[in-house]
Amino acid sequence: MERVVENVRLIAENDYCISCGACKHACPHTEIRIELNPAKGFYEPVVNDSTACVTCETRPCLLVCPSYEEDFVQLANWTDAAQRIGPYHFLYTGHSTSSDIRTRASSGGVIKELCRYYLDKGIVDAVITLRHVKGLEYEPDLYTTSEDILHTPGSIYHNINFEKAIGILKTTPGRFVLVATPCQLTSIHKFKSVGLDQFLGQIEVAIGLICGWTFSRHSLRHFSRAMGVDCTDLQDVTYRGGDRVGPLTLKTGEQTRSFSRRPKYLTDKHAIPFKIAFSRTYNAKRCLLCVEHLNHLADIAVGDAWLKAFKDDKFGTSIIIVRNPEINTTLQELAALGRVKLAIAAEEDVIESQGKDLALGISAQQIINKLVLKGKFAPKYKLPCPETDLPSARIWYKNYLRPLWFRYLTWNGFGRGLFAVRVFWYHLSFWALLPFRMARKRLRALLDRL
Questions:
Q1: What HEC string does 342-388 produce?
Q2: Stretches in the chain below the pLDDT threshold 70
Q3: Pairing between strand 201-209 and 234-238?
Q4: Tell me: the pLDDT tens digits for 14-50?
């Protein structure tokens, strides 16, 4: 089947955009802009005038796109299939020894400690990471002091426009630490690999976030309305901080409300709306097809250590994947200075922490295989040991088909009504299935005693 490769509209029309903005900077005719699509709740590229694309033979807008094709064997030098989590040299669990930094951070405070170290030592001139602008808007910005680093936002799960990061690198000379999600970092690597490295700035260290999902802005809008929060007046949203899990905090001009991110049905009124709003229904479509959650191209990748060993940890611990051996020297110096506490980890710890399917991208590859079999466009990945199976009917429905149905209804104006129906259904099913849950709980307790 002939593949349509006219321009980056191919990505937007298939809803695979991750809002990195690389295509805007790659376009030799400056005909691409990045705009928020209110129906979708995502930023995506808009081609002003596609007539210039007729004579554009190299299609740079597609070549830099993380949702078009990615060769991780080449980009990450990932040739050893035995390393299932991508190429690495050292694995740790760890956290900052500063209680202030740990409570401000999303997972252990290791990233903040690294950024502060590089700035204090004069190894870099600034850190490029997100800064809150207003409302739901965050954008890449320069942090130049270790004190400023303390005020960087934690996890941000709703969609943001990342294109300013490339703009900073193109126009600002200096040495930088870049903090980015996997697909954001991939876009910058691809931008450089296809001969578009016009950067005045140099990335000295790439700190990768281990990423789960990005949610459509409808996720927050529907949850806010369900909880009586004016979503049109949201001044700020924070998803983490304070402890290991951290609350979801919604701030408007008149009130600030916090909601547990581990709600229980019988004690938390927001339990069902929260579970629905932050489900795969509202995921970016590209996230459902992602195989790089562990940030294969970073010098060091950091995320939450969701391990049984830390179930009683109140402040958060990081799982740390050192992909560039030079970074290990920095970590060891921070440990020697007493600023971080480290413990050796294994590959299985990383997989357990993030979940096998997420860490290895199994269902994502299987769904892509089925999409290709059906003659549909999908991201093309090159991995050392690719998954060749097709998804089961359950995986296909739960992880792809059902989210597509809900996404279509939401984008066409039926999202709020569907949300209310799902809330009602969850309440009904909870009480209907409660006797079976109680019986299963008693049976497990009995078996444990035996």
A1: EEECCHHHHHHHHCHHHHHCHHHHHHHHHHHHCCCCCCEEECCCCCC
A2: 1-5, 196-197
A3: unpaired
A4: 999 999 999 999 999 999 999 999 999 999 999 998 8
